[in-house]
Amino acid sequence: MNGFADHGLDEAAFGDKGGFTEGLRTFDAFPKTKATYTRRTSTGGYTTLALFLFSTFLCLAEFRRWYRGNETQLFSVEKGVSHALQINFDTVVAMKCPDIHVNVQDASGDRILAGEMLSREPTSWSQWVNDKGIHILGNEGGKGRREEMEEEDTHVGHVLGDVKRGRKKFKKTPRMRRGAMADSCRIYGSLEGNKVQGDFHITARGHGYEMFGQHLDHNGLFALTFNFSHLISELSFGPLYPSLLNPLDHTLATTPAHFFRYQYYLSVVPTIYTRSSAPSLPSPDELAHPPSLSSSTILTNQYAVTSQSHLVGEQSIPGIFFKFDIEPILLTISEERGGFLALLVRVVNVVSGALVGGGWIYQLVGWGRENFVGGVRGKREPSGRGMLHGRGEEEEGEDE
After folding, report:
1. How distant is the alpha carbon of residue 144 from its chain centre?
2. Cβ distance 86 to 238 under 8 Å?
């Protein structure tokens, strides 16, 4: 046909080859365009660069969210029977050590002579009140920053990181400056009490308790020795983690009055911080002496606090009183991180959506420029019709 056969040529050689591979072309969802029919522009290059940067930003955001994980909080009734509760205390009182009496009494009637279990060291008041980072009770000036720091200590990653890096003992009492007088007393240490409602008292010697010993007189010049201004460096329940910030940590309260009563009311909630998807609940023995359950799980206690302070008469008992109550619930804060395959799926979806959406926007903008902006310019600046549309303007003028 058409002379191909006379020259020994086969017309089928100039068509598509048959076979299974060629049959699959019918189902090709990605049709190709020859390079001769495409045109590259600088606008397309800028658009591609912008889409690449935008996709990179979205990928980094997805990876960061995956790395941080997702926190969940679960409240449950505390199971088992626990008996003991460790109390960690570190405070400086503006009175001399021999004039202070410390005691703990719980709802069961047991009384712990905390003064014999806690350490006392004479110190200078001026060495502590000038310390940076202290929080003055009732001062709203630094409340925002304080709340931010406390909020950080509610996240699993921050808590576990601080516990691993931080020390697990009280810091040493700084040496007094040469010539400084020991006008205050530092009381610090850990003691174990019953895990029931209780009161922690700091009073003057011979006040508030049926005890033997000399009574600190509050008449005449002896009344000047009463000063319950104090700085609380640490007050926590459970294992000692000084790096964690509790509501009363680094709290300063001062008063010029000699007969003054500070009262703090605390609600203690046992809390588990974990990165495990299915953490095992602690046993009663672990609740009594809660160690770190694993490298990714710790058991501690949080508390909320309210305070009330006022002047008292000479017939009342001045001092510092902490009343704590153990809530019968267990709070589990867990941080879970999705699988790496799920992260890849989200990244692919994000990048695909950005590229497809960017391509549509680019095509719409090009269509708008071609049909609207280009049309307006064509009307304002008409070009010559050229040889295909007839003679030029000069030839028309000559004919006239």
Report:
1. 15
2. yes
The radius of gyration computed from the CA coordinates of the chain, to the nearest angstrom, equals 39
Q: What confidence tier does 132 reach under pLDDT thresholds 50, 70, 90?
A: low
The amino acid that residue 172 corresponds to is K
Nearest to 123 by CA among 75, 176, 191, 169: 176
Amino acid identity, position 352: S
DSSP sequence for 294-310? BTTEEEEEEEEEEEEEE
How many C-beta atoms lie closer than 10 Å to residue 287's C-beta? 22
Tokens representing 134 are 């202290």
CA dihedral of 209, 216, 265, 76, whole degrees rounded to 10: -50
pLDDT digits (tens, 9 = 90+) for 188-246: 999 888 888 888 888 887 666 555 455 565 655 555 678 889 999 999 998 888 888 88
> What gap in Å lies between CA 270 and CA 157, rounded to an integer?
18
Among candidate residues 91, 101, 120, 77, the one with its CA nearest the CA of residue 264 = 91
d(CA 146, CA 141): 10
Residue 372 — left, alpha, or beta (φ > 0 → left; ψ -120 to 50 → alpha)? alpha
Complete edge-to-edge strand list for the sheet that includes strand 251-253: 119-123, 184-194, 84-93, 230-237, 251-253, 135-136
Across all residues in the chain, what is the average pLDDT? 77
DSSP character at residue 207: S
Bridge partners (DSSP) of residue 274 are 297, 334
Among 47-56, 98-107, 166-175, 280-289, the range of highest mean pLDDT: 47-56
CA distance 367 to 375: 11
Beta-carbon contacts of 97 under 8 Å, excluding residues fewer than 6 positions away, are 120, 121, 122, 185
Nearest to 195 by CA among 119, 286, 263: 286
- Amino acid, res. 361: I
Please give the Cα distance from 331 to 76 (Å, whole number): 7
Encode pLDDT of 109-125 as tens digits.
677 776 778 899 999 88
Q: What is the pLDDT of residue 368?
A: 84
Question: In whole angstroms, what is the distance from residue 290 CA to residue 163 CA?
Answer: 14
Average of pLDDT values for 125-132?
78
- The Cα 245–Cα 87 span in angstroms is 15
Q: What is the pLDDT of residues 346-386, one digit of tens each?
A: 889 988 988 888 888 888 888 888 888 765 555 544 444 44
